[in-house]
Design brief:
The protein has 251 residues and is mainly alpha-helical. Helix content is 50%, strand content 4%.
Length: 251
């Protein structure tokens, strides 16, 4: 993989510049899955600049800037009482009786607490002044987001967890931002669903081809298959299927 990067650069470039890291973001989900499964593939990873690639950095910044409005939308839900328990909760046992706005309050605490903890963490790591406390919740969220946006490039390259792959338990700042944003979008009904390509998988022939938002590849969700297709490979696959069906229809 490093050899692939070097092939496009001169020896002088290689001596001056450090070798790039594989971006730990969602853009490399298919690559990481293939590597972990030991699947033979020809996938080229997205390289970090220096840690996260530009699209992942842009996505983290966009999601961060959207959080204040999403937190406000979550808070407004409390005015109309809690949603159905089937949506799940954070930190509540099944035996506790719900109270109006409970899910809204718990999710707000989760996101706001996470933003403030990340701000405090970065301030401590960069030896900056401590965060001002005692502000109203809305002002605290706005100020935290403003601070995190200003320090985002540092956080996505120099934070101790900046190289951790994005997953549910990752401490990577970008992964945390994505998790808060995704939870807020699900709660407010603004989340996007994976694109289901309703054509048979070229390997297992099941209707299990999906493309997650932000992924560069189409993946089969059949755990016994797991084939990965580029958009060009998928287009070629659909052309072959269309040709076969045309021949059958003409027979």
């Amino acid at each position: 993989m490093q050899a692939e990067w070097l092939s496009g650069h001169s020896i002088a470039d290689a001596r001056r510049l450090p070798l790039p890291a594989i971006c730990p973001g969602r853009c490399n989900n298919a690559f990481h899955r293939a590597e972990e499964a030991g699947t033979t593939h020809e996938l080229t990873p997205h390289w970090g600049q220096p840690q996260h690639c530009t699209p992942c950095t842009t996505r983290a910044r966009t999601q961060l800037l959207e959080l204040p409005e999403l937190v406000a939308a979550i808070w407004l839900e409390a005015l109309h009482s809690s949603r159905s328990p089937k949506l799940g909760t954070i930190g509540r046992s099944a035996t506790e009786p719900p109270w109006p706005g409970q899910l809204s309050r718990l999710l707000t605490d989760h996101i706001v607490g996470g933003l403030l903890d990340l701000e405090d963490d970065i301030r401590n790591l960069r030896r900056l002044n401590a965060r001002c406390t005692g502000r109203p919740e809305g002002a605290a969220v706005t100020n935290a987001v403003r601070f995190l946006v200003a320090h985002l490039e540092w956080a996505l390259s120099e934070h101790p967890a900046a190289s951790e792959p994005h997953d549910r338990l990752s401490a990577n700042p970008a992964a945390q931002i994505h998790a808060w944003h995704a939870a807020a979008q699900r709660f407010t009904g603004r989340d996007t669903r994976p694109v289901h390509h309703r054509v048979p998988c070229p390997r297992c022939e099941l209707l299990t081809l999906f493309r997650e938002d932000g992924d560069a590849y189409i993946a089969c969700r059949n755990i016994e298959c797991g084939v990965l297709l580029t958009t060009e490979e998928f287009a070629q696959h659909t052309r072959v299927l269309a040709s076969v069906h045309s021949q059958i229809a003409a027979a």
